[in-house]
Specification:
InterPro entries: 2-deoxy-D-gluc_3_DH (IPR011286), NAD(P)-bd_dom_sf (IPR036291), Sc_DH/Rdtase_CS (IPR020904), SDR (IPR050259), SDR_fam (IPR002347)
Largest sheet: 4 strands, parallel
CATH superfamily: NAD(P)-binding Rossmann-like Domain
GO molecular function, one term: NAD binding
Structural class: alpha/beta
Distance between the termini: 34 Å
Bound molecules: NADP nicotinamide-adenine-dinucleotide phosphate
CATH architecture: 3-Layer(aba) Sandwich
GO biological process, one term: monocarboxylic acid metabolic process
Pfam families: adh_short_C2
Order of helices and strands: EHEHEHEHEHEHHHE
Oligomer: single chain
Strand order of the largest sheet: 4-5-6-7
CATH topology: Rossmann fold
Protein name: 3-ketoacyl-ACP reductase
Length: 236
């Protein structure tokens, strides 16, 4: 299952996993029919699975209707931008609910079901550069993404013995809806590009490759890692 699979990083990840042989549940609050069609056109198999995460407990309950899952990619996320002194409580709650609480509850539901079946599994959470840095005008997003890095390690420790690997991928600046506002601001856009050692913004497919790796046998001994996929941003 890939959450938020209708667009952006989630869509590319769903495609990447399908190309490597996974049957994909493309999960989203919006229809993932386009993603399913892309996967089928590439010779893979997928299903469109409705999943709304703004009420995290309801989202986690819906996970139980998905059948046995081997892989969970927690990709769905939102961002709200405002000066910290003006930042609204509703925005704080909305971001923390989708970006952190829903991730925890989905991981918990996935792991419980896997343990009951005696199966292992792979969880990949989508973190951010703002799992490490503070960002500007995105206090709730930064708090949630720092939380994702910590949660990933905490769950990895508890579940490694049951064969459930929990890792995160921290994307750099990727061309998706999430970064449209930044790319439309010529000053911020130039500042960002000028600091990326790779000399380009990332593509969603760059993230899909790293997520897919973490779901292969080759990554069997990798757990609790937060893998930066950022064109060198954090190394600079
Ligand atoms: P995006 O194009 O905005 O995609 C976000 C996805 O999350 C969409 O599928 C969206 O569905 C879904 N979503 C939002 N709220 C939801 C809810 N309440 N229930 C279910 N699904 C919901 O952005 P993206 O860049 O691909 O983001 C994917 C992940 O990467 C996010 O966790 C984001 O924080 C992270 N990330 C992105 C970047 C970047 O540079 N783009 C960098 C670091 C981390 P709708 O289309 O219906 O809104």
């Amino acid at each position: 299952m890939v959450t938020g699979a209708n667009t952006g990083i989630g869509q590319a990840t769903a495609l990447g996993l399908a190309e490597r042989g996974a049957h994909v549940l493309a999960a989203g609050r919006s229809s993932c029919a386009e993603t399913v069609a892309l996967i089928e056109a590439a010779g893979g198999t997928a299903e469109d699975f409705t999943l709304e995460l703004s009420d995290p407990a309801a989202g986690a309950a819906r996970l139980a209707e998905a059948g046995a899952l081997d892989i969970l990619v927690n990709n769905a996320g939102i961002i709200r931008r405002a000066d910290a002194v003006e930042f609204a409580e509703d925005d704080w709650d909305a971001v923390l609910d989708v970006n952190l609480k829903a991730v925890f509850l989905l991981c918990q539901g996935f792991a419980k079901a896997a343990m009951e079946r005696g199966a292992g599994g792979r969880i990949v959470n989508i973190a951010s550069l703002l799992s490490f840095q503070g960002g500007i005008r995105v206090p709730a997003y930064t708090a949630a993404k720092h939380g994702i890095a910590g949660l990933t390690k905490a769950l990895a420790n508890e579940w490694a013995g049951q064969g459930i690997n929990v890792n995160a991928v921290a994307p750099g600046y990727i061309v998706t809806n999430n970064t449209a506002a930044l790319r439309e601001d010529p000053v911020r856009s130039a500042e960002i590009l000028g600091r990326i050692p790779a000399g380009r913004w990332g593509d969603a497919a760059d993230i899909a490759g790293a997520v897919s790796f973490l779901c292969t046998p080759a990554a069997g001994y990798v757990t609790g890692a937060v893998l930066n996929v950022d064109g060198g941003w954090l190394a600079r």
